[in-house]
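hey
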């Protein structure tokens, strides 16, 4: 930061910093991932691992040990005084602000103050949390640290102790450090765009941190975002790097043990020449050099920190990003220009906001011009407009320097982006920033496909699909689907659904993308906090230990996933992924836990390199990805994938089932609600698609319900819906129509029930037309087929069983009440036989296993039904009663047990009546109300027992009979609720005849407390009456009305869904009688005998009826799925149409259209004003050209003898904006000045040194052009090989023996450019001025020849065959990379240096390995290749191993001598 100069009126501060060498981000893909938050998989930050107090303790101990401050240790009085008129030290602090030892006599006394000697480091005393006092307190982090602090320590503090996520982008904002005015619209656009790019990409914004200038603009942008955004949008990280010695009120921040928090007061009025920290920044790094009031101290540390951060790799979401950096410029002065120059020089892209003022506008004005038109006069004119206050103080040398810097900045247009609000189609700053980074990435070590792939990785890392659509997926580049596979994986892992959708739109086929390896990689990338991940770990823990000799396998394999998925989907499904056979090698091609995937190493592309014989396993890739998305509760991603599915109804029902099962184990309430909501959403999708199918074709829709889906574990849609308890789906009209069709069997559903019952009682009526059948052969036939079809119909079987059951109950009641003899009668024996048939039927249901689930699973399914439990209980109770009945001594207890058993058999009728549309819903309501009764009884028991015990203790003294205690406490208290008042409660009906005084009569209760003389009650009647009234008040009025209210609530709640529940439970009854033998008990024993012969004797396996589960032929199934997929698309389109028709959506669309119209109108007005200016400028230029043409005509006529010299009009003087362009020849000459080969030789900073050249703009390069102020410095490198180089050259005597433009001994000083000039004994660079005198780092004055061999060969694969691209062979060339400039070049050596040996490595790493145009040599032999070149007499003699020698060329001389 430039210090303010109080002596110059109107001077402005500005924030400037040096920019280190850096490149655009290098990207790759990695397996170690951090995913976007989902409700099921929550990413926890590192700081959340500790409590607040633990974090403070760790911070208070770590910071003093690793971070230091600086203190002046020796007071040296300065000639300057402080603002308060006090004596200060050279460091700027007063004597009182120094440590005590600094003011004592010192060994350095009498010496000048030297910061290197007199300033020492010690543990910092200012760190912690910072709170800005005032309205809306903001809490941030801050630390005071030494300017020599390593950037790695600061970065560790920020990421580990401050808890910041590693950024995807670093935005360094620079510009004016004093307040400046911006147009309101431009200010709004800048603030909105800057915060948007930071928030969407996860970037850090780095500024100077003070509450002034551009830093204030950034802070206010963050403030506006915070006020307008929701809590879920996250915080924008804004880091302020400021100088500790220039911070006003910094004393409030000093807390040796850490400020938690430290209160900071912003006092702008009293800050003087200091600055206040900005209260809208989130983090502050306060750089200390031990001085006070000196600006710019933070610049070197900020430079090093930004360089360090830009070299870090961000591993997130499948993409490893070498953090890119961009410089955003607003306004600014000379320091800002230097910042931009350094940034551009070192490869950092810059975005300059036009209209912000000063330097930004100067650069923006000339950015679109050719370099030849950026002249000193044009820059001088721009400075006069935008720097009016300081223009008069600018020297010619300063203007020349600015011109040179601006030329160099504009020359690298790929790194410079001008944001012109409303012009060139630009509207948002965030888009301009990201476009600048993409544009810059095209110029750094990336060519062809590598460049596009690199840009795509940047867009994915930033999660900006809009940038990818507009900048990457264009007609300029046609992507192959396989090229998008690695980034598709990255988008899936990092939960970026918009990119997944984009890749699918651009040709990615899931069938080719999803492989066994990809799936395994995705499941291994699950976050440890994911619920499914914990279930996988449980499955791994149950895995048996592998033998020692067995090869190690990856921890998570797909059969583990299949095991967990089967637990979620249900055991009725088959495993989705097979378990590998013993001895099989793991299918994963790469050892996933050990690889690090990035650009420099292996990439995700390795997953898609097929080895010979590799077969990709996947039955349904859409299913695999859908399951992976659903188990992580990724709504948007799952929606996109589901839209690609074929078997979409089964997929939606399976997702509903998985989510409902996961929700049972979810502890977080919000996550549970989200999962249930998503499960309900997929149930609605299944209903929507099925509705479309049922509307088009009922028969095909019903086939979808019963079709066996191989992809979903050989189950059906109907079975999935039932297991998931998707009542809405099962209650759908189409499903119910199918169930009704199954219920009626082969009969038509329009047959009246009375006809069915009539034919049951008189089956010969079946040979008439009384009953109609669905099939034509049955309708026209008159044989046994009609009888068989009729009696096999579930509706007939059901009614036959009802009649049978009623007959059983009547016979059972008759025996109990009329014919229960000591010796069983024939009626009783018939009951025993009947019950035996019922037992056989229950055993058949228990062991009936058509799906081969196994006995244990069938037993669990059987006993999970309440009615089966009731049947088993009734049968066991009957057996107990029968056992007692057959024992003569227990005949009566046996009859009692059988009587109770009769009640249980009667309750079984409720299940039978559930088929009724009238009674079924009422039975469901009764079942729900029974639960309310049980909860009510708990409350009632409290009052009954409390009142009963109190009443019994008050009335009766020492009752010892247990039965009468129970009567008095519970029984009488319970009857009191229904109006039966207890005797003697008030003494009115007191009589000794109705009670036993001593409690000796077993048939009478004990008499209450009474007076033996007067025979009157002695208990307090008033108390018992009050207790009775209170008891009746709470029980009769309160509790009973509460029960009624509960019943009413249950009725209303259940009544809304009763129809759905009844339709859902109707299926169980239909399925039961669909598989039941046709004969009713007891005749069902014949069917059981037939079944026993088939299963036990003939070994015929059980089969499920076709109507509930059917396997289709492949062609029929493919046609059915295609039809379903077509109707799914129709459903999605209708959903989109309905979404657009919603009032909320219409209002939003109208608002967006209005905003678009307003933006277009504003842009149109801006374009009009701009076009008006352009037209005026064009008009001026045409008038000037016309004036010059007329002047030329007059001159020509005068030279031809026409007219006279008198009265000749002189041409109008040219304005500065026109410069020196008086003639076309002059313009062409200027275009030729500044040859591209001479650009690097005029760079201001000489390579590998601290020498700065004299700035030479393009127009001053030719020696013929006058340049009066040209005064280049002299520099000659002191080389070690002094015998092989020319003398230093600071004197002319040693140079007088050099012969230029000739062969000078062993040195050839002739140039391929021809004869060059020699002035004062030193040669002049034939290309023009370079801004430097002397030899520099070269060995000789004049031309320095080099030999550059071109070593090529054909590129070969591992088999030795030549690689081809289409029909062309691919050629490899050997190149080297300069370590400092990072430029690629051919290997070259100076000529005449004897034998030189080149070592060609087996492999070349780095960017050369990534460039298709500059490719390293592939290995031919295990050893290194040695290439020897013998240099004699200026000719190349290649050794036998090499190819042709390279060209011989001059190195552009960088030395010049003599006057300009």
């Amino acid at each position: 930061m430039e210090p303010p100069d109080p002596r110059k009126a109107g001077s402005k501060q500005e924030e400037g910093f040096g920019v280190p060498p850096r490149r655009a981000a290098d990207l790759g893909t990695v397996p170690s991932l951090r995913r976007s938050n989902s409700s099921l998989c929550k990413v926890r930050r590192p700081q959340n691992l500790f409590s607040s107090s633990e974090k403070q303790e760790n911070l208070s101990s770590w910071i003093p040990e690793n971070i230091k401050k600086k203190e002046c240790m020796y007071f040296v009085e300065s000639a300057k005084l402080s603002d308060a008129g006090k004596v200060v030290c050279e460091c700027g602090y007063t004597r009182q602000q120094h440590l005590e030892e600094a003011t004592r006599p010192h060994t350095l006394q009498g010496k000048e103050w030297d910061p290197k000697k007199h300033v020492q480091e010690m543990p910092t005393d200012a760190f912690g949390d910072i709170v800005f006092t005032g309205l809306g307190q903001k809490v941030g982090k801050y630390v005071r640290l030494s300017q020599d602090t390593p950037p790695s320590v600061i970065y560790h503090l920020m990421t580990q102790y401050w808890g910041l996520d590693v950024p995807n982008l670093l935005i360094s904002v620079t510009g004016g450090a004093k307040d400046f005015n911006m147009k309101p619209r431009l200010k709004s656009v800048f603030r909105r765009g800057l915060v948007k790019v930071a928030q969407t990409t996860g970037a850090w914004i780095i500024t100077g941190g003070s509450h002034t200038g551009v830093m204030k603009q950034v802070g206010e942008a963050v403030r506006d975002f915070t006020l307008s955004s929701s809590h879920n949008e996250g915080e924008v990280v804004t880091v302020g790097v400021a100088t500790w010695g220039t911070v006003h009120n910094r004393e409030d921040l000093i807390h040796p043990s850490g400020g938690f928090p430290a209160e900071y007061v912003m006092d702008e009025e009293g800050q003087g020449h200091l600055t206040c920290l900005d209260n809208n920044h989130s983090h502050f790094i306060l750089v200390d050099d031990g001085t006070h009031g000196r600006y710019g101290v933070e610049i070197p540390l900020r430079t090093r920190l930004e360089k360090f951060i830009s070299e870090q790799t961000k591993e997130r979401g499948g993409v490893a990003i070498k953090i890119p950096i961009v410089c955003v410029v607003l306004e600014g002065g000379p320091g800002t220009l230097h910042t931009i120059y350094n940034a551009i020089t070192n490869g950092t892209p810059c975005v300059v906001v036009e209209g912000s003022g000063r330097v930004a506008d100067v650069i923006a004005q000339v950015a679109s011009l050719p370099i030849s038109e950026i002249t000193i006069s044009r820059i001088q004119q721009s400075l006069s407009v935008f720097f009016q206050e300081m223009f008069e103080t600018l020297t010619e040398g300063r203007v020349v320097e600015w011109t040179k810097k601006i030329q160099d900045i504009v020359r690298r247009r790929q790194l410079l982006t001008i944001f012109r609000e409303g012009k060139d189609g630009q509207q948002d700053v965030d888009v301009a920033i990201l476009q600048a980074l993409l544009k810059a990435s095209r110029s750094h070590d990336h060519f062809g496909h590598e460049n596009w792939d690199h840009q795509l990785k940047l867009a994915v890392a930033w999660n900006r699909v809009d940038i990818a659509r507009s900048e990457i997926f264009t007609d300029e580049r046609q992507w192959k689907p396989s090229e998008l596979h690695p980034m598709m994986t990255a988008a899936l892992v990092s939960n970026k659904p918009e990119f997944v959708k984009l890749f699918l739109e651009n040709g990615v086929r899931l069938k080719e993308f999803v492989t066994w390896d990809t799936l395994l990689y995705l499941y291994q990338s699950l976050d440890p906090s994911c619920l499914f991940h914990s279930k996988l770990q449980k499955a791994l823990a149950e895995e048996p230990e592998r033998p020692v000799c067995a090869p190690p396998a990856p921890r998570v394999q797909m059969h583990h996933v299949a095991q967990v998925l089967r637990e979620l989907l249900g055991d009725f499904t088959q495993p989705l992924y097979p378990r590998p056979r013993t001895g099989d090698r793991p299918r994963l091609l790469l050892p996933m836990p050990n690889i690090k995937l990035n650009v420099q190493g292996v990439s995700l592309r390795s997953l898609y390199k097929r080895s010979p014989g590799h077969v990709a396993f996947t039955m349904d890739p859409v299913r695999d990805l859908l399951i992976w998305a659903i188990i992580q509760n990724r709504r948007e991603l799952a929606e996109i994938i589901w839209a690609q599915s074929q078997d979409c109804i089964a997929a939606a029902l399976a997702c509903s089932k998985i989510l409902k099962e996961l929700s049972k184990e979810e502890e977080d309430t919000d996550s549970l609600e989200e999962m249930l909501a998503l499960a309900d959403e997929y149930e609605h999708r299944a209903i929507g698609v099925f509705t479309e199918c049922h509307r088009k074709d009922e028969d095909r829709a019903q086939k979808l319900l019963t079709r066996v889906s191989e992809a979903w574990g050989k189950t059906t849609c109907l079975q999935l819906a039932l297991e998931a308890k998707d009542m809405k789906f099962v209650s759908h009209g189409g499903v119910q129509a199918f169930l009704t069709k199954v219920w009626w069997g082969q009969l038509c559903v329009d047959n009246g029930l009375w006809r069915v019952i009539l034919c049951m009682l008189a089956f010969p009526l079946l040979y008439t037309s009384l009953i109609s059948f669905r099939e034509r052969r049955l309708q026209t036939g008159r044989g046994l087929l009609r009888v068989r079809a009729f009696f096999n119909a579930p509706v007939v079987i059901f009614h036959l069983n009802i009649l049978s059951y009623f007959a059983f109950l009547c016979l059972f009641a008759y025996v109990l009440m009329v014919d229960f003899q000591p010796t069983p009668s024939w009626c009783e024996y018939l009951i025993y036989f009947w019950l035996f048939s019922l037992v056989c039927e229950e055993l058949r249901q228990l062991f009936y296993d058509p799906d081969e689930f196994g006995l244990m699973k069938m037993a669990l399914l059987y006993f999970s039904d309440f009615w089966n439990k009731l049947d088993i209980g009734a049968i066991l109770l009957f057996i107990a009663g029968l056992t007692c009945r057959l024992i003569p001594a227990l005949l009566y207890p046996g009859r009692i047990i059988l009587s109770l058993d009769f009640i249980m058999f009667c309750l079984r009728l409720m299940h039978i009546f559930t088929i009724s549309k009238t009674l079924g819903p009422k039975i469901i309501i009764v079942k729900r109300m029974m639960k309310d009764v049980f909860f009510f009884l708990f409350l009632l028991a409290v009052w009954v027992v409390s009142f009963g015990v109190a009443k019994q203790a008050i009335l009766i003294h020492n009752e010892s009979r247990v039965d009468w205690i129970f009567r008095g406490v519970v029984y009488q208290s319970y009857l009191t609720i229904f109006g039966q008042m207890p005797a003697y409660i008030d003494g009115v009906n007191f009589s000794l005849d109705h009670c036993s005084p001593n409690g000796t009569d077993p048939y009478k209760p004990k008499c209450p407390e009474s007076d033996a003389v007067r025979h009157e009650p002695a208990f307090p009647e008033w108390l018992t009456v009050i207790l009775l009234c209170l008891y009746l008040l709470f029980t009769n009025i309160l509790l009973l009305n509460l029960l009624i209210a509960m019943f009413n609530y249950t009725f209303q709640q259940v009544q809304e869904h009763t129809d759905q529940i009844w339709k859902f439970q109707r299926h169980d009854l239909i399925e039961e009688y669909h598989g039941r033998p046709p004969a009713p008990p007891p005749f069902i024993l014949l069917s059981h005998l037939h079944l026993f012969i088939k299963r036990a004797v003939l070994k015929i396996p059980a089969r499920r009826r076709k109507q509930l589960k059917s396997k289709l032929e492949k062609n029929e199934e493919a046609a059915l799925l295609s039809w379903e997929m077509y109707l799914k698309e129709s459903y999605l389109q209708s959903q989109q149409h309905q979404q657009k028709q919603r009032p909320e959506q219409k209002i939003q669309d109208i608002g967006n259209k209005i905003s678009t119209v307003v933006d277009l109108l504003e842009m149109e007005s801006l374009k009009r004003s701009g076009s008006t200016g352009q037209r005026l400028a064009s008009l001026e230029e045409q008038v000037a050209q016309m004036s010059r043409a007329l002047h030329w005509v007059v001159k020509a006529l005068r030279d031809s003898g026409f007219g006279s010299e008198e009265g000749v009009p002189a041409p109008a003087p040219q304005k500065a904006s026109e410069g020196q362009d008086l003639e076309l020849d002059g313009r062409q000459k200027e275009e030729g000045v500044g040859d591209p080969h001479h650009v690097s030789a005029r760079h201001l900073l000489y390579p590998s040194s601290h020498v700065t050249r004299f700035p030479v703009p393009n127009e001053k390069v030719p020696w013929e052009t006058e340049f009066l102020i040209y005064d280049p410095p002299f520099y000659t490198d002191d080389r070690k090989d002094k015998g092989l180089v020319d003398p230093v050259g600071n004197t002319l005597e040693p140079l007088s023996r050099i012969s230029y433009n000739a062969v000078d001994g062993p040195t050839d000083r002739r140039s391929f450019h021809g004869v060059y000039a020699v002035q004062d004994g030193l040669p002049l660079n034939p290309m023009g001025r370079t801004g430097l005198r002397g030899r520099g780092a070269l060995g000789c004055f004049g031309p320095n020849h080099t030999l550059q061999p071109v070593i090529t060969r054909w590129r070969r694969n591992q088999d030795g065959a030549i690689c081809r691209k289409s029909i062309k062979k691919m050629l490899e060339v050997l190149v080297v990379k300069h370590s400092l400039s990072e430029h690629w070049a051919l290997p070259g050596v100076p000529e005449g240096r004897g034998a030189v040996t080149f070592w060609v490595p087996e492999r070349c790493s780095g960017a050369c390995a990534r460039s298709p145009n500059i490719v390293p040599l592939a290995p031919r032999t295990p050893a290194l290749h040695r290439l020897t070149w013998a240099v004699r007499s200026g000719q190349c003699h290649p050794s036998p191993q090499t190819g042709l020698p390279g060209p011989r060329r001059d190195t552009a001389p960088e030395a010049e001598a003599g006057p300009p």
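Residues 1-50, 583-618, 1212-1235, 1393-1460 have pLDDT under 50 and may be disordered. Residues 117 and 1240 are 39 Å apart (CA to CA).
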